[in-house]
Amino acid sequence: MHHSYIDKYARHNSPLHRLDARTKIISSILFVVLIAVTPSPGSVFLTVGASIPLFLCFIGRIPISYLLIRSLIIIPFAGFAALSYAFSSSSDDILWQWGPLRLSSEGMSNALILLLRSWIAVSAMILLVNTTPFDSLLKGMRRLKVPALFIMLLSFFYRFLYLLWDEVERMQRARNMRYYGGYWKRQVGIMGSMISSLFLRSFQRAEMVQFAMIARGWNGEIKLLPAFPLQRRDLMVLLSMIICLVGLWLLRTF
């Protein structure tokens, strides 16, 4: 079955792909934290911050259209928060009002800033995943002292996400071959049966994996080769990224 993998471009060859995973993880986290915690950012700050993921797409040879489409996933989540920001301002500059609902220019500005912050953060994470193979990403996180339990959960999530999606597609084909129509009550009943069946199959698969791991001597510890020190190239890139972030922070009021 065909899947659109979350790390579709991770195996490509580019200057970004050749960097150490630890360098990219640290740089991405620092960038996202700067974007998220900077109070009252100016338009220049947000414009430069939004242009960085687009520029890195060019360096990493990742289609900008892919980044834009993937980043749309944040809209349903950030959109609700942005709506509350838009209607919660106490400014007197009212653009629209209906009963107790008041839409002001300050509220609109806060909502747009929230949406742009969210988009920049999600775009940075999409770039990280698509310039670093997932196994290298997990190893880099472990060498940065991320808890082993969290690494293991991420590893299982990545491995079994597509297996579960295969199960869903098989169930959908079986449902369609048996005619999925009729009244909405019947359709809801069928969907409920599919969800419960998927849960039982997932639980059964998890038990089988657990027994197989125990039989092979799994003790919960992830074995890694000794960590190599960062190369000079990675250190220079990391230092350059920190300098760029400091410069971006100085633009926060513009």
TrEMBL record:
Membrane topology: Multi-pass membrane protein
TM segment ranges: 67-87, 107-132, 144-164, 235-251
Example GO BP: cobalt ion transport
Origin: domain of life: Bacteria
Location of this chain's protein in the cell: Cell membrane
Keywords for the protein's UniProt record, in alphabetical order: Cell membrane, Membrane, Transmembrane, Transmembrane helix
Main localization category: membrane
GO cellular component entries: ATP-binding cassette (ABC) transporter complex
Stored NCBIfam families: ECF_T_CbiQ (TIGR02454)
Protein name: Cobalt ECF transporter T component CbiQ
Name of the gene: cbiQ
